[in-house]
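User: Run a structure prediction on this.
Assistant: Running it now.
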Amino acid sequence: MEISIRNANQEDYESLLPLFRQVHDLHVFERPDLYKENSTPVGEEEFNNQLKDDKQHILVATQGNEIVGVAVLKEEEILENSFVNARKILLVNSLCVDDASRKMGIGRKLMQSVIYFAKELNVHSIELGVSESNQNAIQFYESIGMAIKNRKMEFRLG
């Protein structure tokens, strides 16, 4: 069955909740010291506010009438100062393909749509964070041409 990519709308909220939960549950599993268990990690009001914000974008991947993937995006402007050049980035805050629909090209198609959209916005780069322990995600992002920009490191004291 064909995969389609479109902008999310308010009616998609209930269908997207399981995907938001899958992402959040992975974060909780990997770092329970940072993330709280929460059956509703994205509230409906927050979701609707994202839809209304012209700097935030939510793309959904559908297979027939079923939502099988989501990309949550945010445009960010870096202002020039004595240290850095001005630039505009598209931040991928979240990318999720439903567990039952993985390895079918849905994530690749979503990211191709993100890249196309970023070019339309005339951004300098697409950026995202990925946990070092999520090797499947790292391999996926590398397979579509992404490269490590920097690493965020920590020294845990508690």
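The beta strands are 3-7, 56-63, 66-78, 87-97, 125-128.
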